[in-house]
Amino acid sequence: MVSTETPICEFGQPAIDFSLPGTDGKIWTLDNCRGENGLLVMFICNHCPYVKAIMDRLVRDTNELKQLGINSVAISANDVADYPEDSFDNMKLVAEQNGFSFPYLYDETQEVAQAYGAVCTPDFFGYNQDLTLQYRGRLDASRKEAAPADVRRDLFEAMQHVAKTGHGPEQQIPSMGCSIKWRAA
Q1: Is residue 184 assigned to a domain?
Q2: Which domain holds residue 136?
Q3: Percent helix, strand, coil in the chain (nearest 5)?
Q4: Which stretches are annotated as coiled coil (predicted)?
Q5: What pLDDT, in 10s, does the model give residues 78-102?
Q6: Which of 63, 139, 125 lies closest to 99, judged by CA?
Q7: Which pLDDT score is estimated for 153?
Q8: Cα gap 159→169, rounded to integer Å
């Protein structure tokens, strides 16, 4: 496992369209994922200890963001040949066990993750109502273990601000996680 940090937010970058299968049996696109006030695109996977450490907070925050008009979508792009725990069937189990209220999509070709420039799990891309990038930071101070319950909710607070103003905070702390497991070329 290689730990990786996300790059600095490139404010104003447009969201990239996609058409990917979800664990719910539907095909999802950027347009049918977006919310009235924006969209949170999350690159996650099933096996990553960084993702496991924040799963309950991720579900909580995405549910609360939905109330603010910010929808969320999670995408898994890991190479399942080398990481079978991240298979589509296992994605269905993870979505069900954790009560995902957002689509969990499978990027089998890894083209969407590459187009977004995703580097790790979790990697968060927060867009405003115009689908321009406003946040590329961490969920909170959690790493491989969950941070204390009273920790600052970086992602939630940033996206709450995006919902109200259309702009993300200037200061953002990078997310850290396992590197995306790319297939051999």
Answers
A1: no
A2: 3-179
A3: 30, 25, 50
A4: none
A5: 999 999 999 999 999 999 999 999 9
A6: 63
A7: 97
A8: 9
Dihedral over alpha carbons 164, 167, 169, 170 (to 10 degrees)? -160
Helix (H) or strand (E) holding 31: helix 30-33
Q: How far apart are CA 164 and CA 185, in angstroms?
A: 43
Q: How many CB atoms lie within 10 A of CB 184?
A: 6
Measured CA to CA, the distance from residue 35 to residue 129 in angstroms comes to 7
85 within some domain: yes
CATH number of the domain where residue 145 is located: 3.40.30.10
How far, in Å, CA of 74 to CA of 85, rounded?
A: 16
Radius of gyration of the chain (CA): 15
Contacts of 4 (CB under 8 A, 6+ apart): 119, 120, 176, 177, 178, 179
**Considering the domain boundaries, does residue 185 fall inside one?**
no
CA distance 147 to 153: 10
